Amino acid sequence: MSEKYKFNNPEGIYFVTCTIVYWIDLFTRKEYKHILLDTLNYYQE
Question: How many Å is the maximal CA-CA distance in the chain?
Fold first, then answer.
């Protein structure tokens, strides 16, 4: 992940994209879903 770009506007709108390697069932397994949602919630704060 790039650390080159810094975002300083808390009111801004951002676009997030990701790549799923080997088609891991990210949204069907509860463990993966909770990790993803916890991470997104952390970065929203």
Answer: 35
- Residue 3 binned pLDDT confidence (cut-offs 50, 70, 90): low
Q: Rounded CA gap, 1 and 13, in Å? A: 19
* Dihedral-angle region of residue 22 (phi above 0 means left; psi in -120 to 50 means alpha; beta otherwise): left
Query: Structure tokens of 35?
Result: 């990790």
**pLDDT band, very low/low/confident/very high, at 22 (cuts 50, 70, 90):** confident
pTM of the full structure = 0.48
* 4 φ, ψ (degrees, to nearest 5): -70, -35
